[in-house]
Specification:
Elements lengths: L1 H16 L7 E8 L5 E8 L6 E12 L7 E4 L2 E9 L2 E15 L4 E16 L4 E7 L2 E6 L11 E8 L1
Length: 161
Amino acid sequence: MKYLTLIVVSCAIISNIYAQETRPQFLTIEGVGNAKHLSVNYDSRFAPGMGGFGFRAGLGGTWSHYGRDNVSVNIPVGINYLIGSDKHFGEIGFVAVPEYYFGTSSKEMFFSTNANIGYRYISENGIMLNALFTPLITRDKLSSNFKSKHPWFGLGVGIKL
């Protein structure tokens, strides 16, 4: 949890440094991807212009992944870098995802890290589409030390704020 706090505070401080200039900001919905099933995310660049470093923070969750009566809530937070210009960008980044699982019989905490490698398209009217390969790097069950690695993909759509 302290790593998540550190990431959020760092993003807020860097974001305020560049507050005098207009930075591209998006509200997106991501299916599958970093949040496992569905998430709503805020994405912004640290500096003006569509390319370069930025961050994302969201709220997501899963249902039925753990069984029909079980759900989880998670908070994907990460740093990304866009390479390209005009409308077409390559995207790379890392996302930390604390996940609180609660079911009919137990409650557990997980923490995972994902890599993001993909493509982002931004239209002239502010519509954003992306497709990401989001492999799970680690997944730690906070009460034991459960780790796994597997491939994962995500698709997102967003609007410029």
